[in-house]
Amino acid sequence: MVGKGSQYALVCTDSDGKYFDGQTTYMLTLPMPVPAKDFWSVVVYDPQTRSQLQTSFPFPSINSLRNKDLVYDADGSVSLFFAPKAPSGKETNWIQTV
User: Is residue 44 exposed (0-12), middle (13-18) or buried (19+ Cβ within 10 Å)?
Assistant: First the structure.
């Protein structure tokens, strides 16, 4: 039903068609406004266990409801970073991968 429920997308490869590698840094930019009534969320899963990735953080995710300190880009979009270590100055928009 349009306008009801949740929508889920799955991405396993980068812009070059290569499978994601937890040792690599990736950036995902979400244009605003994200078409979500209540909130949006990005979660990283482990392909071997099909469970949320286990790192030193309690949640391998970022969402617009919980993460109130996200830094937005000048055009209103938000860039999220996925890497073993946070890129300098991007800590609030980062999800640890390994």
Answer: middle
